[in-house]
Amino acid sequence: MSTDQLNDPNRTFSYNSKSSLLDFRYGVEGKKAHHILNTYSLKDLTRMFKKYGEIKQSEYLARLILQKREISPVNNVNDLKEICEEGKFLYRGRNKNPLKLIFQSLRIECNNELEVLKFTLKKVPEMLKIQGRLLIISFHSLEDEVILKWARSNSQTLKIPDLAINIMPLIKACKGSPFLPSRSEIEVN
Questions:
Q1: pTM (two decimals)
Q2: Separation CA 53–CA 59 (nearest Å)
Q3: Angle formed by the axes of helices 77-86 and 58-71, nearest 10°
């Protein structure tokens, strides 16, 4: 995501894009967020919020959206804020803004982010030079899970007992703690 995308009110990546149609796409391909909110079934909305936002009240949130849809379309940030306020839907995590995980869910769904990440990781061994290094920065636990699963599966020696050979792993995963931002960096961001 670029600064231009964040600052473009038509992309609606910001809580301040109050009246623009919800988009959340990085490019021009795929479904816009307002389309998802206005066409997905209760089951599909619940799945999306639970899987991509890890929202415990995902079905409740999906029902609130369906109720709002019966009156008028859910098209912009203000509509989502109203749904959260009227339904008393509150996210009680570190960031108290209930829109954070809703935005995350919609962004991941619109851009098929986790599948794109998996596809990209599959290409790494053929793109990386021998002895090359790869640094991966993830921004949430869903990405962490995909990356760790990929690293585990590609860093193990494959043993074929019938042929008495071992196939060396594609990568060597570095062990150790992840790099985390400092408190001041978190405050600035």
A1: 0.76
A2: 12
A3: 120
Residue whose structure tokens are 């599948």:
115
Distance CA 83, CA 152 (A): 41
Tabulate helix, strand, coil % of the chain (nearest 5). 50, 5, 45
Q: Assess contact for 83 and 68: CB atoms under 8 A.
A: yes
Which pair of tokens denotes residue 180? 């985390």
118: its two tokens: 């998996």
Q: pLDDT in tens for each of the 189 residues of the chain?
A: 555 555 555 555 555 666 678 888 888 888 999 999 999 999 999 999 999 998 888 999 999 999 999 999 999 888 988 888 887 766 555 556 778 889 999 999 999 999 999 999 988 888 888 888 888 888 888 998 998 888 888 776 666 666 666 566 666 776 666 667 788 888 887
Pairing of strands 158-160, 165-167: antiparallel
Domain boundaries, the chain: 3-111, 113-188
| Collapsed DSSP state (helix, strand, coil) of residue 114 | helix
Looking at the structure, give the CATH architecture of the domain made up of residues 3-111.
Orthogonal Bundle (1.10)
Q: Which residues contact 15 (CB under 8 A, 6 or more apart)?
A: 77, 97, 99, 103
Count of C-beta atoms within a 10 Å radius of residue 82: 14
Nearest CA to 84 out of 102, 108, 107, 111 is that of 102
